[in-house]
Design a protein that fits this description.
290 residues, 8-stranded antiparallel beta sheet
Length: 290
């Protein structure tokens, strides 16, 4: 009898382990792919959160970042507008220096904002650190093409090149500073985040712009919706990066949010914003399990 109980218990543990390992849609680290990496910003990652004011002012509520970014270089000396994903201060948002700007081939018109990648220097013994250590980064910005330069000599982010422009501290973890650019291997992985999904509500009475950040699991967001205490579920439309908009009047209502990642999992955060919420506030909801 005791032997049977032990066998059953062991089988149950084994089954739970399989279930745990097969959380639907989780990126588990697939085959490695090839790309290149450079770095931008300072040694403290300063400059990696910024975007040209001219780009934003060209259209107060940007609908098509792609065409605008292709003609505009990121300028670390301009006032911060939160990068191409709109995250703002990457430290306060929890991303820190583990970030990168993605080339057109990877950025996918902003759909990749929040996605996580494992990257390691590859096939360059002169500049790669010994042992090929890997880093984990979150996509928080866009590296625009520079068609004035050839793709193999300065136009590193030109299509169709897959390219990561890393925050300097991350680049220095895999390669020597003097390398400038190195070949890398990369793969999509699950994002592990501390705390819940964050919803930052900006705008005004008839225009709600919700920044969705700190998303675990897939990291990106393919669909989002909001529900007030006096409304049903209403779809949010992507404005730019991970800023999602609604033109409904939601002031004076407690708000719930529903988020779906590219792994097809959905998380619902019920009544995370109280009825007396104010524009500019951030609320934390239910995150994905990883």
């Amino acid at each position: 009898m005791a032997v049977g109980i032990v066998v059953c218990f062991a089988s149950l543990i084994s089954l739970l382990s399989v279930v745990q390992a097969r959380i639907p849609g989780v990126y588990s680290g697939g085959a490695w792919k090839g790309a290149h990496a450079t770095f931008y910003g300072g040694s403290d990652a300063s400059g990696t959160m910024k975007i040209s004011n001219e780009l934003f002012l060209a259209n107060n509520f940007v609908r098509d970042l792609k065409s605008l970014f292709e003609d505009t270089w990121l300028n670390p000396h301009e006032d911060s507008m939160g990068g191409a994903c709109g995250y703002g201060n990457l430290y306060s948002q929890g991303y820190g220096v583990n970030t990168a700007a993605l080339s057109t081939a990877l950025f996918n018109n902003g759909l990749s904002c929040g996605a996580c990648f494992e990257i390691k220097c590859a096939n360059d013994p002169q500049w790669c650190h010994s042992g090929s250590p890997s880093i984990l980064i979150t996509a928080t910005n866009f590296c625009p093409p520079n068609y004035a330069l050839p793709s193999d000599n300065g136009g590193w982010c030109n299509p169709p090149r897959p390219h990561f422009d890393l925050a300097m501290p991350m680049f220095l973890k895999i390669a020597e500073y003097r390398a400038g650019i190195v070949p890398v291997a990369f793969r999509r992985v699950s994002c592990r985040k501390q705390g819940g999904i964050r919803f930052t509500i900006n705008g005004f009475r008839y225009f709600n712009l919700v920044l969705i950040s700190n998303v675990a699991g897939a990291g990106d967001v393919v669909r989002a919706s909001v529900k007030g205490t006096r409304t049903g579920w209403m779809s949010l439309s992507r404005n730019w990066g991970q800023n999602w908009q609604s033109n409904a009047v939601l002031v004076g209502q407690s708000l719930s949010f529903r988020v779906t990642g590219s792994d097809r999992r959905t998380s619902t955060s019920w009544n995370v914003a109280p009825a007396n919420w104010q524009f500019g506030q951030t609320f934390s909801g239910k995150n994905f399990r990883v």
